[in-house]
# Entry
Amino acid sequence: MRLSDRLVDAVVQDIAAWRAAGLSFGHVAINAALAELRRGDFAERLLAKLELARIPPECIQVEVTESVLLGRDVEQVERNFIHLTQHGVKLALDDFGTGFASLTHLKRFPIEIIKIDRSFVRDLQVDPEDGAIVDALIGLGRSLGIQVVAEGIETKAQRDFLATLGCAVGQGYLFGAAIPAGEIFALLRRKHVDRRAA
# Structure
């Protein structure tokens, strides 16, 4: 079995356990490599695993880097993308702005989320060029109806600055560091209890 298949299986098992326990978690993002997306059955295999576990496709977000949109077999990649989005799986373009994707790719592919690379977020308050790039990307997303996520937020000042630019979603150490898979169930359980107590 491929490593990617084992990882997806583990994610599906975790999601099924969280749902069975009545825990709210939004969605889980998985990274899809170019080699996987070039396979003709990537979308079908992922959707079949979700269906078997009775997991709504909206619980999964597939993240890709800009390199996936370039090169050979791009038609196969596009077919996988279309099949996934038609069934409710959202597609996110990770590390946006650091690769070679053009704006035509945002028109061609059913990308619903762009994630601004942390390299632009890190110095956006002190580097006018980074601030201008982030502002432009947020405006681009708004105009195209694409959700924009800022990566690498480490300070409240960065969060507040992004909010003034109109970026409503972010991720980074300010909100929480990565934790081992075994600790997620307990974390979700605590959040569930806190919400019920509020």
Notes: The domain at 3-174 is CATH 3.20.20.450 (TIM Barrel). The chain is about 50% helix and 15% strand. The mean pLDDT is 89.
